[in-house]
Design goal:
This protein is mainly α. 86% of the residues lie in helices and 0% in strands. It is built from three helices and no strands.
Amino acid sequence: MSTKPAVHRQLNIKSGVAKRLLKEHILYAKEAEEQQRKLDKLIANNAEEWDVKSARRILEESHRMIKDSDNRLGKAVQDLRELVLRVKSQPEFAEDVELLHAEEALEEASV
């Protein structure tokens, strides 16, 4: 993978993956908060047991999705970090725009 277009393509792909997974992780976290509010409301209103049980299952699934998206995001960030470090060591990519974009994506996703 020493040709510049191939490296640019990999930087773009891995940066895009990290950004997409970060958005996905944030959305799952928001969904879990919303499901928790619904569950709390059902409990406060003395809803039927089936409704409460169903809301709990949905909340548990949201938590599983958060954990899954967190794992996938961590792997994507690690892959991107390794690629960025490998590319930075090559002098022909010293001031490369694609590398800078990849570093920005890495910084966003690492937070």
